[in-house]
Amino acid sequence: MQSDALLLAALLATAVGAAPLAERAAQAPARPAAAANPKLDAWKKEAVNDVDSQAVFAQQMVDQIFSYGELGFQEMETNRYLIDILRKNGFEVEAGIAGIPTAFMATWGSGKPIIALGSDIDCIPQASQKPGVAYHDPIVEGAPGHGEGHNSGLPLQIVAAISVKKIMAREHLPGTIRIWTGTAEELVGSKAYFIRAGLFKDADIALFVHVGENLGVSWGAGAGTGLVSVQYSFVGETAHAAAAPWRGRSALDAVELMDIGWQFRREHLRLSQRSHDVITDGGDQPNVVPRTASVWYYFRETDYEHIKELWATGDTMAKAAAMMADVELKQEQVLGAAWPQHFNKVVAETTWANIQQVGLPKWSDEDQQLARAIQKELKNPKAEGLSVKLPEKLQGPVEHNDGGGSDDIGDISWNVPTVTLRYPSNIPGLPGHNWANAIAMATPIAHKGVIAGAKVQAMTILDLVTRPELVEQAWAYFREVQTKETKYVPLIRPQDRPAIWLNKNTMEKYRAEMKKYYYDPSRYKTYLDQLGIKYPTVRTSSTP
Ligand SMILES: [Zn+2]
Fold first, then answer.
1. What average pLDDT score do residues 467-478 get?
2. How far is the CA of 280 from the centre of ligand 1 (A)?
3. Which end of the chain has fewer surrounding CB within 10 Å, N or C?
């Protein structure tokens, strides 16, 4: 790792330093790269104040999207709502991008640089939860909910963009701001298709945000995985399961045999892999030999080659299972894909400097009380509450990647210099993809975290718009370091299409009931007010 760092320093020095330095010095003799820039500092200050002045607007957006609680590819209300806000704020919006009805790309401004601001918008099955309540208490039993906090990211980006574009317009600064949806991120369902559709072809920098428990950013290859999401379907023959079972061939047998085969094989896979499945069709009723059955796998690994290898092993298991059950294996369906993530060093350093200036929000006693109560509820060894200290340093590449989660921002990060800003809108020590992760997401914790993040983001956009050398350096890292040996090859195949039918039935099942609880900001100051929740509500001896 040490030698990599030195190599990188040398590369960056030659890429952006030595040769072009003389030219640049001639063009801008009065301003060395990192010199004080009082004008930029003043604009940053102005943007930060403007973000503060948008606190109510931010809170309303966060609460509104929380109340919609829409699963991937079914984010209709969320889309309609956000598109309306963006149009009112002077953005041109193209809806239905890349063949995905619930995805959009909004554009404001003109010229370079083109800064693409994105965040995910979908939620988690069975994560419905009353905000501000420190134990499991769903708004609608069984319904989806924002148990990942994706209701907060685009509000952050919108607030930051609005504050920056005021300054850009007044000062006639060239530059284009784009805002786009991370549609169906929980299915890693959209971003590879955005790339295939060429939507990031002319983008200079992608600034992504994701909810976290602190303000942070990283560069290089991080912990975590990329993946392919594949559904295998089998077709057999029905028969009376008691009178003539020998006449039938069970597709469910193939699914079960594939799963058993996979569990045995798991012992002999690399430690960094993650793989899991759900049975999406397990037959109709016990007395009819199942003619059809399907199983849906996520195959995760830490690099492209190993993802492909794991996928091929899955294919072998499926074929072998079909042979054992004497059923037909249909053409497999790719339902999503994500490259492992790699973030840009220059953009991360720029963001990190701004993080240190903004710092963490001031948490109230109520905020801390809620955080500690849910940490206790989940029997965490320590109930430490919310983060009160920034990370010690900018996080660089991980030395040993033991695997972990994925995000299809990975695909974008291999096409445009990208970073993910994490902002402190959630509580540390939660399981993820769970009702507990929804508790903070329509409370002052989420609202304050979004404001802190929007300040950092506004400052970073101003840096990129006013200091073209940063964009140049970011691309030097991208070309000379990140993609020097690793080239992006899409995991999705030419015949694959976005899986926009997913979650349709689930959303249809719950939407009517959920609608009763949509947030109405014309009548209630906050969603907590509307639901009549005392903040915070923590377990007492009388709580069931
Ligand atoms: Zn997420």
1. 98
2. 23
3. C
Instruction: Report the distance separating Cα 295 and Cα 317, nearest Å.
Output: 12
Measure 148 CA to ligand 1 centroid, in angstroms: 6
Give 121 Cα–ligand 1 centroid separation in angstroms. 9
**Strand bridging mode 92-95 / 104-110:** antiparallel
Q: Tokens 């699963």 identify what position?
A: 71
Distance 275 CA to ligand 1 centre (A): 18
What are the helix (H) ranges across 117-248? 153-171, 191-196
Instruction: State the distance from the centre of ligand 1 to the C-alpha of 252, rounded, in angstroms.
Output: 32
Q: Which of 366, 343, 335, 413 is nearest to 526 (CA)?
A: 366
Quick one: tokens of 459?
């400052």
Pair of tokens at residue 423: 């902002």
pLDDT digits (tens, 9 = 90+) for 198-245: 999 999 999 999 999 999 999 999 999 999 999 999 999 999 999 999
| Ligand 1 centroid – CA 116 distance (Å) | 18
- Whether the Cβ atoms of residue 100 and residue 183 lie closer than 8 Å to each other: yes
pTM over 0.90: yes
The structure tokens listed for 109 are: 């401004």
Residue 263: CB atoms within 10 A of its CB come to 10
Q: How far does residue 468's CA lie from ligand 1's centre (Å)?
A: 31
- 318 neighbors 218 (Cβ within 8 angstroms): no
